[in-house]
Amino acid sequence: MANTSEVIYTGHLRTEAVHLQSGNKLITDAPKDNHGKGEAFSPTDLTATSLACCMLSVMGIVSKKEGITTSEGAKATVLKVMYAEPRRIGEIHIEITMPAKGFTEKEKKMYEHAAYTCPVAKSLHPDIKQEIKFTYL
Do residues 58 and 89 both lie within one domain? Predict the structure, then answer.
């Protein structure tokens, strides 16, 4: 099994991660409320954002696999809520706005089920509250 990524600590509470298969890079920075500059995604920002990315991705898989109205153009807005003692992600709120494509009730249920059961959603600790809202234009 090949490694997924390599992460280097570059100093000043910043890391650089490289996706080994593609060579794509991303930077993380500690948030301002935890001694950082807040100039890039924090690791916990990435966790919350990964949930939204996973949801939208599996919805795309469902669209392709089932031959239903495409979810292309769907947008997710993410709010991460940190808790103290111990400092951790306490809640992730995601609002998914679906484009105006006349989705049937069956398609809506398929998309919502895919989102709620995506791999990241199922991998997060159950103490993290996941509040997901769908809006259909």
Answer: yes
List pLDDT tens digits, range 61-107. Answer: 999 999 999 999 999 999 999 999 999 999 999 999 999 999 999 99
**CB under 8 Å to 6, separation ≥6 — which residues?**
17, 18, 20
Q: Of 70, 31, 78, 29, nearest to 53 (Cα)?
A: 78
List the one residue out of 55, 56, 31, 32 whose CA is nearest residue 41. Answer: 31
Query: Domain of 111: which CATH number?
Result: 3.30.300.20
Q: Which domain holds residue 21?
A: 5-34
Q: Are 52 and 93 part of one and the same domain?
A: yes
- Band the pLDDT of 15: cuts 50, 70, 90: very high
Tokens, residue 108: 């809506």
- Measured CA distances, 88 to 21, 30, 34, 66, 101 (Å): 30, 13, 12, 37, 38
* Backbone angles phi and psi of 109, in degrees to 5: -65, -40
Dihedral sign, CA of 52, 55, 58, 60?
negative
